[in-house]
Amino acid sequence: MSEIKQGNTTAAQMSEIRNILAKVRLDGRTRLTEQEGKMVLACAGVGITQEELATSEDEALALCKKIGYPVVLKIASPDILHKTEAGGVKVGLSDAEAVRRAYAEILASAKKYDSKARIDGVLVQEMVTGGVETILGVANRPPFGPVVAFGLGGVFVELMKDVTFRIAPVDEAGATAMLGEIKGAAMLDGYRGGPAVNKAELAKIVARLSRLAVDLNEEIEELDINPLVLTEKRIVALDALITLKSEGTKTRVYPAPKNDIRAVLEPRSIAVIGASTDPTKTGHVLLKNILVNGFPGKVYAINPTAKEILGVKAYPNILAVPDDIDMVFFLLPGKWVPTLFEDCKKKGVKAAVIISAGFAEVGDEGRKVQQDLQEVIRESGVRCLGPNSIGFINMSHKLMGSFILFENWLDGPISLAAQSGIFAGAVADELMSKSVQRIGIGQSVIFGNKIDLDESDFVEWAWKNPKSKVIAIHMESMNNPRRFLSLANKVKKDKPIIVLKPGRTAAGAIASASHTGSMAADETLVDHSLRQYGVTRAYDLEEFVEFMKAFSFQPFPKGKRVGIVTFSGANGVMSSDELAEHGFDLAEFSETSKERMKKFLPEWQPAKNPLDLWASLGAGNRLTHEEGILSVLADENVDAVLVVLLALANADFDGIREIYERARKEFPDKPVYTVILGGPIKGRWIKEIDGLNMPVFDTTRIAVKALAAARQYVVQRDEVQPDPILPVSGG
C-alpha cells in the first residue's frame, strides 16, 4: 500500500479504486476492510498511516522494525467491523515483547467475539500522536444522494454535534467554508498552543473526497474516516470504513415528458371534468373563476347530465368535445381519475390538474392508486399538477384556475408555489384582503401530492418569466433535491428564491406525510443544502410573507452598514443588538452627514448612530422626520436604513407620504425598512405611504430578519457552486 501514489485522483487511480471495489464484490462483501479502505483513500489523495498486514508474530515483529516503534496492532477481518468492541485493537506498543503479547491477545479476542469470522491476519500500523482529531466522510442520504460531512472528532462530535454538511461535490472554496462553520473552528488555527493545521490542504482533501463520492455514486454507500488527524506537517487517516451499495439499486429511466409546465400554466383551451350546476360545488366555483376572470381561450364543461353550465355548453365526456383540448381539470372522486385519464390520452390532452383527493395523503391504499396513476402519467408524457391540489392562478394569462373564489387578486412580481392549498386559499385571501401593504402575486401554483410537476419545474418556468422578480415556494417535501438545487445555483443570479420548508421536527414530518403524502427529508441536510446553493429559507409563515414583501418592494443592500433612525432610544438599542446578531455593522456617519444633523439636533446631542430624534421634535415634527431620514439615507457610509417611527399625537404631522416619495426618488438603490409603533395615527401613516413600495414591519426583529435575508442573498448571488446533478445509469 505504501507504494500507491497519494495525490489527485487520476484516471489510473480511479481505475485502481474500481478494481478494489470489484474484488470486494467478487468476495461477496459490501464492506471493505480497513486496509482496503485505506488503499482507496490513498488513491484518492488522502494521507494514510504506514501499515502492512502480518500473518504471524514473526512477520509482525519484522514490520515493527520496518515501520518503527511505537506501533498499533489491529485485527484484519472482513467480518469484524467494530474492532475495538471485539478487543481487536492494541495501541502504544513500544517493544517486541509488547507486540508478541498483543498479537496473541488480539487473535484470541477476535475468535471469542466471532468464532466464524474470517481472520486475514493483524495489521501493523504506525502510532500517530498529537494533532487535532477530526471526522470526514461521505454518505448516500436519500433523496439527496452523496453528502459530505466534516467536524471535530471525539467528544466534539459525540456531545456537541460539531459537524457541518454539504451536498457533494464541493469545490475548494466550499470546503474552506465548511472548515470555518464548525463550532470548534479555532482548533484548526492553533488554539491554546495547539498545532495550526494546513487548512488549504485539508480543503483540497474534502473537495477531492466529495468528488470521489459523486464519481462513485452508484458504488459507494458510505465512506467514513474517523479519525482524520491533523498535525502541523501532515493530514492522516487513522481508520476508514467503506460500505458499498447493494446490487440492483439503479434508477429506472422514464421517457422524457412531451410538454413542460407551460402546458398547465399557459393553455389555450380548457375542459373542466366534473363541472357542476350546483353553485356550492367546487366544479361550479372553478368553472366560474375561469370564466369571470377573462380567460381568453376556449372552455368546455364536462358533465354527463347537464346541457349547459354558466352559459357554457356541457359534454357528457371529453371524447365528445369536437375540438382540441390542451388542459383538463379533474374534480371527480380520485378513484375515477385513472380511467378518465385514458380518455385524455386518446384526446391528445397535453396537461391535467387533478383537484381530486384520496391518494397518497390517505394512506397505503391511496398511495397504491397514486403510484399506478403515476406510471400512466409518466408513460404518456402528459404533464400533471396534483393530485390533492386546489389549482393555480396565472394572472399574465388571465387564468384563475382555482376553486377558491377571489374577486380582488393583485397581480405583481412574485411567483408563488406551494404544496398546500392554504397558500392559495386562506393565506392568499388574507393577503389580498389587506387594505395596505399588499403584495402582488403574478402566479400561485398548488402542487398537492406532486405526482408529476414539482418545485423544480416551477422554478425553471418562473426563471424564464420576465414578469417574475421573486420566486417563493412552500414545500413539505423535495421530489428531486439535486435538480432543484442545480436550478437554484443558476436562477439566484437573476432572481431570489425564498423557501418555507416546514416539517423540521419529527411531529411536523408525520403531519406532513398525512397531509400531502410527503416523505420526510433530513432537516439538517435541507437546511445546509438550501444555504449552500443560495436559497433564502423562511422558518415560519411570518418570515415567508415578510421576506416576499421586502424582496419585491425594495432594492437589495449593497453592503452591511446600516443607519438607524429612531424616535425611541430603547428601540435604537434593540435594533443595534438585532443588527449585530445578524452580522450587520452600525454605519459610522460621515462628517458631511453630521454637519447636516447638527442643524436640527439639540446642542447637547451628538450626531451618532443610532440617530435618536425624539428630543429634536422641537425643531418641527415634519422637519425632524424628513431631515432625519434623508440625512442618513444620503450618507455615503450607509448601505441600508432602518427607521423606527413612533406614531403618537405629539409626533404627528402632515406630509409623511411626501417624505417617503422623496426618499424613494432621490435614493432608489438604497433600501429603507420601516417599523411604526402606535395606534390610530400608525394606521393613517401606513395608509398614506401605501403604494410607494416602502415595506412597513410590526417589529424591529422581523424587519432586521428580512434585511438580513436580503443581504445574504446579495452575498451569495454570484457564488456558483459545483453542479449537483448526478449521472443516472439506465435500467
CATH topology of the domain at 406-553: Rossmann fold
CATH superfamily of the domain at 406-553: Succinyl-CoA synthetase domains
Structural class: alpha/beta
Fraction of residues in β-strands: 15-25%
The percent range for helix content is 25-40%
CATH architecture of the domain at 406-553: 3-Layer(aba) Sandwich
Radius of gyration: 32 Å
Main sheet characteristics: 7 strands, mixed
Number of strands: 30
Query: What is the CATH top level name of the domain at 406-553?
Result: Alpha Beta
Poorly predicted spans? 1-7, 505-520
Mean pLDDT: 91
N→C terminal distance = 36 Å
Number of helices: 23
Global geometry: flat
Strand order in the sheet with the most strands: 13-14-12-11-15-16-17
Report on the structure:
The chain has about 725 residues and is of the alpha/beta class. Helices cover about 35% and strands about 20% of the residues. The protein is built from 23 helices and 30 strands. The radius of gyration is 32 Å and the shape is flat. The two termini are about 35 Å apart. The relative contact order is 0.07.
Defining key terms:
731 residues, alpha/beta, Dna Ligase, domain 1, Rossmann fold, 23 helices, 36% helix, 20% strand, disordered N terminus
